[in-house]
Amino acid sequence: MSVVAESKCSVCGGSHFEVVHARALEGTTRAVLFVQCADCGAVVGALDFVNLGVQINHMKEDLQRTLEKLRAQFKS
Ligand SMILES: [Zn+2]
Q: Domain of life here (predicted)?
């Protein structure tokens, strides 16, 4: 069994992280989330506010429902 290393903040060594809305972010109108150290606030990553994976899954489900309706119409 492999052991996964614990993620640590490179600034303070903390191991707790949080996701917050990026504020005072210049150069874009896109909503961005920061992954930051919960202890000192050092930013360690950024995420799009809109989760594309979730959006794509919703589109897939909508398409499947539409296809089922069309198939039902052609059978009758
Ligand atoms: Zn830190």
A: Bacteria
